[in-house]
């Protein structure tokens, strides 16, 4: 199976190149030219798919990156630089990639409409500048020289097919690697990304860099196609239309980027044949884009979901109680120590001078009524609330800095809300969160222990309760010193709480991880926790061994009306 998985992309690549060759000799000359245009658009769309589809950011200046690539190729051609067209094409891509990193910098702070305005503004400014400057060599009529073996349109078309296939392979492997997982993670939740110890900044910048590099290659390829580059090929309005097409088709999926490219060239061509001005193509794309944005989906995912729904049931947990025996754990000295933790939200005091200790190889339960400050406590300890006052020590060393830094130091957390990116498979997500080499067998064993769906299943096909346990498994595979769990059983039916508790009880012995568990189900707390801290109105109401704390009259009083479980 693995061998098939590994060789499939190359087999598809060979078939695509063979098809390209057949088309290059079989197609009418006009369609060969249209085909070249579609390939140029396809490479650009692949790039947009990375930044918008995978990483979830708006980028409305993709053709500006194309213009950078075209500019570099034109300038190197005019300068008769050594290396020839293919080297220039690569350099154009690299130059555009660097510009992409610069454009990506605002994306570190801006989101949504603000990022749209910045990138569209950049595209408009580049548009005007290009009209003023024109491309190098154009005034002297210096046509860009194609490589010797690819001078006529048919052979240049074949070269373009090969470049497209190489770009598709690059995107395929990048998406399957750490960068790709980072893009998916950051698109779904920046907090979830940081909690996995990954840099949100790196994920965003690499997405922009890869997207722009592909844009640059596409612009360079266009220059070889047309000979002389003109600003009219790289306008802001075209960038906007390309973005809409990427959203509508779902260009993060390689086949859909190719389909989008066919539409990009095919729709205006059809309009022309019907005697309708080609600019109406933008209107068609606009309408399709509005449909995609309002429905919240795209062609690619719709087709895939249809396929999955037909072929598979959603994956759920298979968590049976009584199938595992709890191993005895002897908690040691405190590994996580929190002193005087205070957090204010304006007038609201969410935490007031809270002290907590998580014993090595122990499970500390943190309970309290709604609004007591439990999630705030986890946020503050893990660095998500930089204004929190107080001291956090892990293994006797002060723990400061960003959430990602704290995660890398050995403090992991899960969230009350779903932060597991649906675009990844279970395995890709686990490897991303684990941040270390984990064998396939280790992954399978950990998933099996928690009754989670198999590694190969896409997370989009996993129900929310199971996804939250996959999140727990990922962080356990990271082998942190301490794992903070914020209501991990919230998505599970109550019948599975007991089974989950049995597993959790074994976590310190099995994974060598100490646990802080926030939980409302007091049966679960009783069955799992050695010690318990009770929060009420942001203060510690009681703390100590479980039995004593849960029988404390003050605790009982705080819980009156909140739950009958005590
Ligand atoms: N971002 C915020 N801005 C303002 N107030 C906040 C914010 N986050 C939390 N609070 C307030 O801080 C207090 C503690 O909230 P927190 O979510 O930590 O409680 P909790 O014990 O986790 O509750 P629950 O059990 O419902 O999850 C509440 O009064 C809440 O309204």
From TrEMBL:
Lineage: superkingdom = Bacteria
ABC transporter domain segment(s): 336-562
Whether Transmembrane counts among this entry's keywords is yes
- Which keywords describe this protein according to UniProt? ATP-binding, Cell membrane, Membrane, Nucleotide-binding, Transmembrane, Transmembrane helix, Transport
> Where would you find this protein in the cell?
Cell membrane
The record, for CDD domains, names: TM_PBP1_LivM_like
Membrane-traversing stretches:
7-24, 30-51, 58-79, 85-108, 115-135, 155-174, 240-265, 280-303
Q: List the membrane topology term(s).
A: Multi-pass membrane protein
Protein name (Swiss-Prot/TrEMBL): Branched-chain amino acid transport system permease protein
């Amino acid at each position: 199976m693995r061998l098939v998985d590994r060789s499939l992309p190359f087999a598809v690549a060979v078939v695509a190149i063979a098809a390209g060759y057949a088309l290059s000799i079989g197609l009418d000359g006009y369609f060969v030219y249209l085909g070249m245009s579609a390939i140029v658009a396809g490479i650009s769309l692949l790039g947009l798919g990375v930044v918008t589809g995978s990483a979830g950011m708006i980028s409305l200046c993709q053709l500006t990156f194309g213009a950078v690539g075209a500019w570099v190729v034109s300038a190197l051609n005019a300068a008769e630089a050594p290396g020839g067209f293919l080297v220039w094409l690569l350099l154009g891509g690299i130059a555009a990639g660097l510009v992409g990193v610069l454009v990506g910098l605002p994306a570190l702070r801006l989101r949504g409409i603000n990022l749209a305005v910045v990138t569209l503004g950049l595209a408009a400014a580049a548009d005007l500048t290009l009209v003023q400057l024109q491309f190098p060599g154009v005034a002297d009529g210096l046509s860009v020289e194609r490589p010797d073996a690819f001078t006529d349109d048919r052979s240049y078309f074949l070269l373009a097919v090969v470049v497209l296939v190489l770009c598709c392979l690059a995107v395929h492997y990048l998406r399957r690697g750490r960068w790709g997982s980072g893009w998916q993670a950051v698109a779904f939740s920046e907090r979830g990304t940081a909690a996995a110890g990954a840099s949100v900044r790196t994920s965003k910048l690499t997405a922009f860099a890869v997207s722009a590099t592909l844009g640059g290659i596409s612009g360079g390829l266009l220059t070889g196609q047309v000979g002389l580059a003109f600003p009219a090929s790289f306008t802001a309005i075209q960038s906007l239309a390309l973005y809409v097409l990427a959203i509508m088709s779902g260009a993060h999926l390689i086949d859909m980027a190719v389909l989008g490219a066919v539409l990009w060239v095919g729709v205006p061509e059809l309009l022309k044949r019907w005697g309708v001005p080609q600019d109406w193509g933008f209107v068609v794309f606009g309408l399709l884009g509005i449909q995609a944005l309002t429905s919240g989906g795209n062609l690619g995912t719709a087709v895939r979901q249809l396929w999955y729904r037909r072929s598979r049931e959603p994956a759920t947990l298979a968590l049976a109680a009584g199938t595992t025996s709890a191993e005895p754990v002897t908690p040691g000295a405190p590994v996580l120590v929190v002193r005087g933790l205070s957090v204010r939200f304006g007038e609201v005091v969410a935490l007031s001078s809270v002290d907590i200790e998580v014993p090595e190889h122990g499970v500390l339960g943190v309970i309290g009524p709604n609004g007591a400050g439990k999630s705030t406590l986890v946020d503050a300890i893990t660095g998500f609330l930089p204004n929190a006052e107080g001291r956090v020590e892990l293994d006797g060393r002060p723990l400061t800095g960003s959430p990602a830094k704290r995660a890398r130091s050995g403090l992991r957390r899960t969230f009350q809300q779903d932060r597991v990116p649906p675009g990844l498979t279970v395995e890709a997500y686990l490897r991303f969160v684990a941040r270390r080499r984990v064998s396939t067998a280790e992954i399978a064993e950990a998933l099996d222990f928690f009754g989670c769906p198999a590694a190969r299943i896409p997370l989009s096909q996993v129900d929310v309760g199971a996804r939250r346990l996959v999140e727990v498994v990922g962080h356990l595979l990271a082998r942190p010193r301490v794992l903070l769990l914020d209501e991990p059983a919230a998505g599970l039916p109550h019948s599975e709480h007991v089974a989950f508790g049995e597993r959790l009880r074994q976590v310190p012995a099995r994974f060598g991880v100490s646990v802080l568990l926030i939980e409302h189900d007091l049966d679960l707390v009783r069955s799992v926790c050695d010690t318990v801290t009770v929060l009420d109105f942001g203060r510690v109401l009681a703390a100590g061994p479980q039995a004593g704390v849960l029988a404390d009259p003050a605790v009982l009083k705080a819980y009156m009306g909140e739950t009958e479980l005590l």
